[in-house]
# Entry
Amino acid sequence: MAMSAEQSLPCYTHEEKGLPLKGIIEICAGIISVDSSEICKSTPTPQKNAVFIVDTEAVKEKDLTCDDSGMYDSHSSPSSLVEIIMDSEKKIIKDVQLISRSKVPLDDPRLAEDNIFLVRRQYSTQNKKSGKFEDLQKELKKHPNLENTAVIKSILGNEINGKRELGLVDSKNFEEDYTKLSSQWPPEFKHYIESKQLKVRSLKETFKKNMGREVRIAAGLGNPPNKFDNQRAESMNSVLKESVGSRFLD
# Structure
């Protein structure tokens, strides 16, 4: 049995592709015995292609994609109706027969038969290049009545000629200012900002807890705090360009 980077995260097998339908059924139905030491009790964080068996009583389904490997999008959940014939010892005595790949309702009368099962799998496409700012821009394109640049500046602030224009992340009264700002947004966009959508936290929580005024002060970015981004650490030229009259932001 292989182990992932963390010893508490056992890897069931290293495969370039996922398990076949029959293999999934055999594990879920208990036909193949899986030792408790092969079951993950927390979200796997793989560095290579691998198959993990996760205890869904220990890990919430929405946390399965929070694996520090980038954002996940394009979610789909295809279902298959299959026939499985087993003997008294739960051994499959006939190859798994695929009956249908079309969407099957849970009240389908065929599911009342002992040897008919519904197998539903969830797929998500990983996008390592995707980030919160890019996702925000993508979402804004769905709302033509919102001026993209103005919305982003109202949330993240802006810097012109070395001077900081304050945004929501600079607020001393975040909740009060958020309420005023979000009242100008369409309900769908507000829901997007406040919902987790398979992420660890919502964008609203990220703006407050990870980008907000207090955390930037605690990080040593001054008081009032300057912005922080990777470019400042990587390019001193960009920092110098934001200076005015020997007054530097960093």
In short: Residues 109 and 116 are 10 Å apart (CA to CA). The chain has two domains: 10-127, 132-241.
